[in-house]
Amino acid sequence: MEPKFVCIPVPGHTAGSMALLYNNRFLFSGDHLWWDRDLQQLVTPEILVWDDSQLERSVKKLLNLSFEWVLPGHGEHIHLPHRDMKKALDELLQRRRNFQHSPIYPDNPREPN
Questions:
Q1: Which of 23, 87, 95, 104 has its CA 20 to 30 A from that of 56?
Q2: For residues 73 and 17, what is the distance between their CA atoms, to the nearest angstrom?
Q3: Using CA atoms, how far apart are residues 86 and 102, in angstroms rounded to an integer?
């Protein structure tokens, strides 16, 4: 029998960021991922990011999971069919690759670009 809750490390925003996947349907994403109602797309933090490359790897990890709901700690929740959720994650990764980040996080200060 498959566990109903699965803890998923999603470092990036912070070193210890975690998400919870319930019943392969509901992703409790905390501060890692949310829906932007105005832009109509999934988004991740752009400031206060501990490690950009870890954040990108954490989003890629979600592509291997099956879920239809993103239920964040902040921001909007969203329900999308599984195929559309994967597409939204792919689009998010593409946007992140094209975006110049200049985040500053107190534990990992970086010079702005």
A1: 23
A2: 12
A3: 27
Question: Quick one: how far is CA 88 from the chain centroid?
Answer: 11
Domains of the chain: 5-98 (3.60.15.10)
Structure tokens of 4?
């109903």
Q: Which of 72, 101, 69, 74 is nearest to 85 (CA)?
A: 69
- In sequence order, what DSSP letters do the residues of 73-113 get, joined into one string? SSSB-EE--HHHHHHHHHHHHHHHHHS-----BTTB-----
Distance of CA 51 to the CA centre of its chain: 13
For residues 73 and 110, give the distance between their C-alpha atoms in angstroms, rounded to a whole number: 26
Q: How many CB atoms lie within 10 A of CB 89?
A: 20
> In the block, which residue shows the tokens 């990992």?
108
Q: How far is CA 100 from the centre of its chain?
A: 18
- Which pLDDT tens digit goes with each residue over 60-111? 999 999 999 999 998 999 999 999 999 999 999 999 888 765 544 455 444 3
Q: Which DSSP category does 32 fall into?
A: S
